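User: Teach me something about this protein's shape.
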Amino acid sequence: MNEDTTGRIRIGVSSCLIGEKVRYNGDHKRDRYLTDVLSQYFEYVPFCPEMAIGLGTPRPTIRLEGQADRPRAVVQNDDRRDVTEDLAAYGREVGECETGLSGYILKSRSPSCGMERVKVYDRNNVPSPAANGVYARAFMEQQPLLPVEEEGRLNDPDLRDNFIERVFVYHRWQRQVAGGHRARDLVDFHSTHKFLIMAHDQNRMRELGRLVAGAAADPAGTEAGYFPLLMRTLKQPARRSNQVNVLQHVAGYFKQDLDAGDRRELGEAIEGYRLGELPIIAPLTLIRHHLRRNPDAFLEAQRFLEERPAALDTRRR
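Assistant: First, the predicted structure itself:
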């Protein structure tokens, strides 16, 4: 199962971000957005690789040294213990065992957990922000499709929205696979995500559609090719121009149902979003309003149009 008893989605998290005192100085780095907002919807599964390999707290710091592509994690004390292999082994272990996670939030700039731009010190003791944390790298290599972000990057509304969207999609796929889905289930899954995928990449949407068309002949092969391509597509943030195209496409479904005033109002809301004068929630709200008055089963099933809890919906900005 990848939900707790309340229905929250299970995601991994660096322990220090949820207030656990596991840092080198015996303190934590609690992130209030994670603990006060996201915790309402996500069940956290905490990990601290440095504690897991026995470094304890408080402890000497570690830092990355050597080559940026394969740095070494070295304890900064007289012994200068190299813990690279220990951290990497733990990352592989968690990646292999924790297959029920639907996402992961890592501690930024950490030599063990940083997702990117972690400082690496060269032989002259000069740092450059060029590497992944050792544990994070091993984990992500083990689970390359899992949505992963750093807490600092979640301050960016677009990156936060992209991460949350991918977590939801990943979670829905896990539930479908756990139910032993058939070829028809894959067709339905793709159909309900069609406009969501189109908002990221129209060409990929068509490519994914062609894969789904062959599901009846080769269900296992189609599934193996479909989901990796889907997650790689969604990792690319949705561009405004693509989202405008989707909104206009959806609006076309109502052209026979709306009077001239309603059509003009919806068109102006979409144009306001295109120009950056309105948030996307403005045309989305109008579309949902018209959909309630003019039901359409295909549109009602579209994940692109679904309402999220206000606390998670960066589209309101």
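Now, about its shape. Residues 157-235 form one domain. The chain has a mean pLDDT of 93. If you'd like, I can walk through any region in more detail.
User: That's plenty for now, thanks!
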